[in-house]
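re: ur msg from earlier - yeah i can do the NAP complex, just paste it... oh wait u already did. ok heres what im feeding in:
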Amino acid sequence: MTAENVALVIGASGGIGAAVARRLLDDNRYSTVFCVSRAATPPSALAATPGLRWLPCSGSPEDIAAVRGELGDDVGRLARVVICSGILHAGDKGPEKSLEQLDPAWMQAVFHANSITPMLWLQALAKGLGRKQHCVIAALSARVGSIGDNRLGGWYSYRASKAALNMLLQTAAVELARRAPASKLIAFHPGTTDTALSRPFQGNVAAGKLFSPDFVAGRLLAVMDAATADGTLSYLDWDGQAITW
Ligand SMILES: NC(=O)c1ccc[n+]([C@@H]2O[C@H](COP(=O)([O-])OP(=O)(O)OC[C@H]3O[C@@H](n4cnc5c(N)ncnc54)[C@H](OP(=O)(O)O)[C@@H]3O)[C@@H](O)[C@H]2O)c1
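and the outut:
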């Protein structure tokens, strides 16, 4: 890699997204770190940092297309793309404990944020990736998206949205193996991380098992650095260990 490489973080005002952006900005291998967020301005941890390009985006297809236009030819220099957006709860809605709690509108909202939006970004970027470009793309998935690992049940929409994300990413990996064979896709489980998303559910986390966003960002970027282009999706945890599908 040269300092001409650039990086892109989507969901950059979130707990993990902001920590990933901070580490990328501190890494002199990247000349520019593009940060996409629904927020109009960066959080204080990122503000006024040289190399930062803050790109507000609602996430609508039209806004994604507009941001893609702003990225222009820089897509051909992307070395890292990290998709950190996602929801688990909003307002009085959250993970379901029983079938009776299933609500179609909430299910659609979760699928939209967790499964569809990441793919709209991949769609927007794919065309600009060069055949020789070693672009490592990670999307924040979750271990609860593993079908084989699901023994606890519950959390219907969130689990299913992450399982769907994994399938969508694997399908994209097959396509990118033809179109951008030097690229690599990773579905990443960060472990329980101290952010707004996990805060209502941290009560049962064992001591020492609640990670800081900065620790997780470091693990994720190390996993991405170690990745090789092999035409498949890797489903990996924060320790670089493969998760059963
Ligand atoms: N924290 C954990 O323990 C944990 C565990 C497993 C997996 N994950 C996954 O890690 C990712 C990052 O989560 P986090 O812990 O950093 O949570 P977070 O602090 O709540 O950040 C999530 C970010 O996602 C974006 N977002 C929120 N609602 C959205 C919506 N409706 N549509 C599109 N984007 C939306 C926002 O970014 P902007 O405001 O910048 O747009 C938000 O800040 C998520 O995909 C989550 O599922 C987290």
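cool cool. The pocket of NAP is lined by residues 11-17, 37-39, 59, 84-87, 113, 117, 140, 142, 189-190, 192-193, 195-198 (CB under 6 Å). ping me if u need the other ligands too
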